[in-house]
Amino acid sequence: EGMEVKVDVQSEEMNSNHSDTSQALIQDRDPKRINKSLKVTFEDVIAEPPSVRSFDKVWLWSHALFEVARLWFYCFISLLLAVPLSLAAGLLFAVLSCLHIWLIMPFVQLLLINMHWIRTVWSSILNILISTYFSSIGKCCGRITIHLERHEDR
Predict the structure, then answer these.
(1) Which residues make Cβ contacts (< 8 Å) with residue 59, sequence separation at least 6?
(2) What highest taxon heads this organism's lineage (predicted)?
(3) Most CB atoms within 10 A, among 9, 61, 70, 105?
(4) SS3 of residue 7 by DSSP
(5) CA-based angle 41:43:47, to the nearest 5?
(6) Which of 43, 44, 82, 40 is nearest to 59 (CA)?
(7) Which distant-in-sequence residues (6+ apart) come within 8 Å of 117 by Cβ?
(8) Element (H, E) at 120
(9) How many CA atoms lie within 13 A of 95 on its CB side?
């Protein structure tokens, strides 16, 4: 009988952590269930009512071709598009993160620190103008009641 021998240079702990991580990535590719609406099966797309039916062999071959076409065309299209789109998305998120961290948030914090008086004046203006307007509208409309009745005409 043949015996298989496997020699691994890495330590066991490093190998187990790496294999656990890569197995988790390969097994559950949508852990946050972002694409739960894309669980499309043949029965979701094509359904024959009991009154109109094709031959059984036509139904079986249609089902098989649907599944094979869906799987292979998805694999082919993702082979062509996944790497360039991943690179573009990574670049875009890197640029947006850099802008947010190094430009936008320091500017916002600078405004919040140096413009406290504007926030105080703005909140006072809103409280004086908007709050009084909406509270008076609420008092005017607070007593309105609507009764719906159904009249049956014969």
Answers:
(1) 48, 53
(2) Eukaryota
(3) 70
(4) coil
(5) 150
(6) 43
(7) none
(8) helix 116-126
(9) 6
Distance CA 66, CA 57 (A): 14
pLDDT tens for the chain, 154 residues long, are 444 444 444 444 445 555 665 565 567 777 788 888 778 788 888 888 888 888 889 889 998 998 899 899 999 999 999 999 999 999 999 999 999 999 999 999 988 888 888 888 989 999 988 888 888 898 898 888 888 888 877 6
Residue 38 amino acid letter: L
Locate 98 and state its tokens: 């850099």
First CA to last CA distance, the chain: 92
Structure tokens at 81: 């598009």
For residue 29, give the nearest of 91, 88, 95, 74 by alpha carbon: 74
Non-local (6+) Cβ contacts of 116 within 8 A are none
CA distance 137 to 131: 10
Q: What are the distances in angstroms from CA 152 to CA 146, 147, 148?
A: 19, 16, 13
User: In terms of DSSP H, where are the helices of 28-104?
Assistant: 42-45, 56-99
What pTM, to 2 d.p., does this model score?
Answer: 0.47
